[in-house]
User: Which sequence fits this backbone?
């Protein structure tokens, strides 16, 4: 990792700094007071126990106890009394080029009608609704309609396979799934409904499917179970009283990968989560009433929840959503969209920027993107060269970049520059935001000094923190609160530089980050082993120019099975069918035995070295190196033959 030295600091432009929403840090303020003040900017039906924003016993923290609040009311109704009633809340561009603009009042109409549809379907406060939708306005409408009536949503990313979807529906015990006939990707229809049909075959809990018509291609509709969204919306009346929720009531579940084969249903609260997302969206993106804000994430990930839907709508912003691929019909689609709508704030991922870099700046330069005033990145460490390209080519050297570090579990941004205040360094997320006490510690939980490398932890509870893992509180304590006393363990490694800036180095556990998508190596391994041809497998990440990390698998085949490219293909299919196409392995190596330490731990480092074509480093703790030598010899033969 390249740590950029102090001469390379980028200072905020004076004009930008003068107009910024936040103009300085006030470190003397107590974090509880800070968050209490921020929570007060939302609309509460009933205030929490004032002066006591935080309660509960660690790590079962509670924020704003006894306060009553509703997410959809805060995202919509609060803006209806003034001029924002007619402001664009949502701009949609479909991949084929169709467009739709919804004002805050339009959103009110559609959300309240859909809330009434949900009620008609028998959904009550506390019932989990699974949403399996692409990037279309109905995804936002469905989330807000659920939150209006107090039904937690569980959005499943559209790229997940039917098996992965079924696991998530069953774990959350959803009786209703909201989905779509299909959607557009590189000019072709992706038949989402077919996936759902397959998934619900193994979900006894599901009673109804609501199906949005997007592509209009012919699909199977099961009588009494499947209903067209537009038909039910046609009769539904406008207006639906928002349910006053307790601050600690669940707003949503969102599944993410951990170190075991079973994904974790991360639980988020209502009052604390809304406070965290509204505050950080306002401060980090320096959001103004005139902004056209575009976060390119998918709604199925936490970034989509916090910074497409909740944060921006709480702040009355105009959000843009785009359905399709960045290279359709041409590689300039993003820049065309920015020019066309006058996008001012762009929030995207390093993997996308690397792709744009590879395609070349001529695609960017074809368009007038001078409306941009702020750029953001999220999802993985950004390489300093990529940061500089983003700054120069997209930001014309004048837009501040906010490199935002956070996680599904943290709910909102934790470490990031404040764009009008913090000097930035390409590749560093800089320092923790106000209200957050993050640190880098060694294995004993002691802060590392400047220049030191260690584990990234958070030392104070914060409002948007996860409240647990659905159905498994033991795992919650175990994963996040057992590594260090009284600290939240992030699973990331980090370095502290000479200015105290944080440089995130990536995961220190067996979680792989492919193109900003989290996948547990154990999930991949269990998919391969499930094929019945494999005795044992290890999934490791290798570096990749575009995706950041790519997936490689080492598999030990049963004696009766001969290694071949057909077997490799079958195993790849098995991973894609268990998880999704986005988890397709780059390569599968067949090995006689996995390298292990005496205590039986797989030495992933050795496997990574082999896959990346390096001589494996220290092998002294390896029990039996014959299998590794054998594989290396085979590799050498392939190279020589090639
Ligand atoms: O490893 C960190 C990386 O992404 C992980 C969280 O993944 P997920 O829960 O899917 O959420 C992604 C979007 C918030 C973290 O543990 N990560 C996220 N942002 C950054 C990052 N690594 C370095 N720099 C970032 N800005």
Assistant:
């Amino acid at each position: 990792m390249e740590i950029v030295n102090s001469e390379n600091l980028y200072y905020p432009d004076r004009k930008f700094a003068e107009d910024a929403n936040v103009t300085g840090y006030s470190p003397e303020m107590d974090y509880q007071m800070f968050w209490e003040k921020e929570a007060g900017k939302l609309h509460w039906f009933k205030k929490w126990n004032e002066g006591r924003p935080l309660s509960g016993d660690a790590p079962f923290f509670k924020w704003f106890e006894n306060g009553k609040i509703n997410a959809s009311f805060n995202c919509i109704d609060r803006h209806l009394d003034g001029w924002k009633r007619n402001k664009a809340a949502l701009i949609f561009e479909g991949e084929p080029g169709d467009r739709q603009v919804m004002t805050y009042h339009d959103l009110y109409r559609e959300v309240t009608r859909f809330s009434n549809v949900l009620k008609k379907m028998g959904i009550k406060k506390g019932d989990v609704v699974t949403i399996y939708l692409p990037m279309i306005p109905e995804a936002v409408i469905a989330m807000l309609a659920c939150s209006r009536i107090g039904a937690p949503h569980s959005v499943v990313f559209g790229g997940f396979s039917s098996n992965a979807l079924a696991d998530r529906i069953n774990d959350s015990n959803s009786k209703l799934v909201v989905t779509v006939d299909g959607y557009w990707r590189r000019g072709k229809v992706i038949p989402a409904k077919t996936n759902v049909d397959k998934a619900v075959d193994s979900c006894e809990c599901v009673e109804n499917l609501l199906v949005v018509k997007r592509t209009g291609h012919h699909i199977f509709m099961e009588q009494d179970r499947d209903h067209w969204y537009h038909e039910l919306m046609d009769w539904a009346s406008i207006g639906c009283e928002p349910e006053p929720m307790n601050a600690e009531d669940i707003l949503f579940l969102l599944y993410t990968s951990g170190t075991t084969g079973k994904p974790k249903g991360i639980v988020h609260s209502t009052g604390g989560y809304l406070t965290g997302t509204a505050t950080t969206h306002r401060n980090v993106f320096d959001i103004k009433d005139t902004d056209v804000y575009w976060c390119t994430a998918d709604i199925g990930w936490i970034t989509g929840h916090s910074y497409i839907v909740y944060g921006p709508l709480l702040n009355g912003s105009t959000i843009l959503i785009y359905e399709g691929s960045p290279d359709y019909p041409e590689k300039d689609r993003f820049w065309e969209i920015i020019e066309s709508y006058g996008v001012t704030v762009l929030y995207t991922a390093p993997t996308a920027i690397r792709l744009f870099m590879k395609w070349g700046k001529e695609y960017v330069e074809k368009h007038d993107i001078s409306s941009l005033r702020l750029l953001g990145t999220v999802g993985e460490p950004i390489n300093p060269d990529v940061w500089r390209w983003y700054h120069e080519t997209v930001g014309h050297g004048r837009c501040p970049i906010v490199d935002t570090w956070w996680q599904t579990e943290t709910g909102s941004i934790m470490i990031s520059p404040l764009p009008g205040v913090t000097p930035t360094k390409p590749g560093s997320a800089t320092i923790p935001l106000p209200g957050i006490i993050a640190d880098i510690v060694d294995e004993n939980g002691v802060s590392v000094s400047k220049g030191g490398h260690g584990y990234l932890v958070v030392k104070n509870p914060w409002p948007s923190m996860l409240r647990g893992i659905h159905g498994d509180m033991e795992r919650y304590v175990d994963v996040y609160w057992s590594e260090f006393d009284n600290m939240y363990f992030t699973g990331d490694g980090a370095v502290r530089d000479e200015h105290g800036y944080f440089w995130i180095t990536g995961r220190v556990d067996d979680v792989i980050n492919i193109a900003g998508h989290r996948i547990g190596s154990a999930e991949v391994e269990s998919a391969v082993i499930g094929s019945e041809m494999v005795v044992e497998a290890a999934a490791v990440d290798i570096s990749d120019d575009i995706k950041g990390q790519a997936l490689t698998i080492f598999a030990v085949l049963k004696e009766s099975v001969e290694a071949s490219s057909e077997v490799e293909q079958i195993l790849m299919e098995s991973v894609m069918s268990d998880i999704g196409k986005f988890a397709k392995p780059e390569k599968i190596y067949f090995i006689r035995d996995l390298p292990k330490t005496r205590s039986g731990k797989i030495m992933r480092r050795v496997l990574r070295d082999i896959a990346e074509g390096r001589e494996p480093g220290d092998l002294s703790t390896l029990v039996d190196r014959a299998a590794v030598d054998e594989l290396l010899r085979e590799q050498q033969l392939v190279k020589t033959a090639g």
Notes: The pocket of adenosine-5'-monophosphate-propyl ester is lined by residues 256, 302-303, 378-381, 403-408, 429, 490-492, 504, 506-507, 513, 518 (CB under 6 Å). The two ends are 32 Å apart (CA to CA). Residues 149 and 243 are 5 Å apart (CA to CA). Residues 511-635 form a domain with the GMP Synthetase; Chain A, domain 3 fold (CATH 3.30.300.30).
